[in-house]
Specification:
Layout (H helix, E strand, L loop, with lengths): L2 H19 L9 H23 L9 H25 L1
Helix pairs in contact: 1-2, 1-3, 2-3
């Protein structure tokens, strides 16, 4: 995928993960953060996929790739929220 495709894909994955995780931070998360969470979550999801299956996941605009990216973004948001809670 190209650079702008990753941004769009990341924004959608980050937005979907934020809807699933929810919480009070949902309204404060802006578009840039959603893109970053989605792109990093896609990379994390790909790593988790590789560790679980032994196969490398190549990302394209399909539902399987979107699912892996959203699951990775959900894991990332969960970890970030646990870290934030432990600081308070």
């Amino acid at each position: 995928m190209g650079f702008f495709s990753w941004i769009l894909f990341g924004a959608l994955a980050g937005w979907a993960a934020n809807l699933v995780v929810g919480g009070r931070d949902r309204q404060r998360q802006g578009c840039l953060i959603s893109v970053l969470v989605g792109v990093v979550g896609a990379a994390l999801g790909g790593l988790i996929y590789r560790l679980a299956t032994g196969e490398e996941k190549t990302f394209a605009f399909d539902f399987a790739s979107f699912g892996v990216a959203v699951l990775g973004a959900i894991v990332l948001l969960g970890v970030l929220r646990l870290v934030e809670r432990s600081r308070h």
